[in-house]
Amino acid sequence: MFERSRILTTSLAVLAAASIAGAELASAQVSSHALRDGGDSAPASAGPGRSRLPLIDSSAFPLGGREAQRAPVQGAPFVSPSSIETDSREPQAFGTQRWPYTMARVANSTPTLGNVNRIERSPVTAMPYRATGKLIMRFGGDWFVCTGSLIRPGIVVSAAHCVHNFGQGAAGFADEVLFMPANVSDPWNVRQPYGQYRVRRMYVPTTYRNGRDTCDVNAPGVVCNNDIAVLVLRDKKGVRAGDVVGWYGYGTNGYSYVQAPEFGNATVADITQLGYPLAWDNGYQMQRGNSFGKLVTSNVTTNRRPLINTQLGSAMTGGSSGGPWLVNFGTRPTITGSATAGSQASRMIVVGTTSWGYTTTGPKVQGASFFGQNHEFPNADYGGWGPGNIGALMNSACTAFPAAC
Questions:
Q1: Residues with Cβ < 8 Å from 91, sequence gap 6 or more?
Q2: Confidence class of residue 335 from pLDDT cuts 50, 70 and 90?
Q3: Domains plus CATH for the chain?
Q4: Is the pLDDT score of 358 beyond 90?
Q5: What pTM value is reported for the model?
Q6: Mean pLDDT over all residues of the chain?
Q7: Spatial distance between the Cα atoms of 405 and 223, rounded to a whole number of angstroms
């Protein structure tokens, strides 16, 4: 279920990104395809922009860096949580699902479109924010937008539905994809602080490409186990994007999640969400949301296999899809005396990417495919890059392009 809308739309949705056509790899688990080299010029047919939005009905899914380069981080096994109560109220900071969140523009002041000064750019252009950026992709003659983030010097992680029309095989991929780290204004008319990087190759799960992924029975292709994509960027004169702006780590199998008696024994994590939703500052400015993320499992699926998603409270809309969900977000402080950083305290770890939202604005809940092991990706390790879906994608991309990793 995909829908396309122009950038200034006010309808709720979630995302747009780009991908690449794909021949299956020998593993039969990950598909990839190379993009042509279009140089570093702005999109030839730059226009008002659109958002490619997977939408679901409000009843479709039950609620139930530049620091040291890091290896994938593993956490505790996931535990199925209980459902969350609902009611009909919609206060300002949470929706009808009573899921609290905060959300605000990252930049320090109101943006002046077309003339962005240093104050308006701060702190977007500094770590830990600038490893996140805006994705722009072309499907035929139409351009769409999304969000992505660097998890290695030349590797961006986003959502598979951004890059591919679920189940459409080689015909479902985008024709052109651009990544703009720390986008701060209209990307069609103003050069961004770190310019743009073209995507060289994208990797998506073969089950997603072929339409056989485990998905919610009411939302195939939207609420799924493996709505994740890994993109390999082209260097600029031998300099990788991450060499300029830094990159995050990534975590698997519930890194920093904990089964909490205080939350009814649900498995939860404190998550920071970054993205470029179109309904906020026209999608030109990075937005930050914070909420507790909750692990939610379901057996109401297209193939009767367990579906594993993380959900959180969020007011983001279309264009935010593919944006990172991070635990332990922020710069590491110097800790002295009796203080400690706690368990599983690695900094700026991506544990998911924005995947879906509701067609109505009431619920204010979004979801992400869980980074880790599931039915489609059961292995505890893929080539040293970690377990599950993200490990398999990284293994394929980094084996083919080791310099990007």
A1: none
A2: confident
A3: 2-404 (2.40.10.120)
A4: no
A5: 0.82
A6: 78
A7: 29
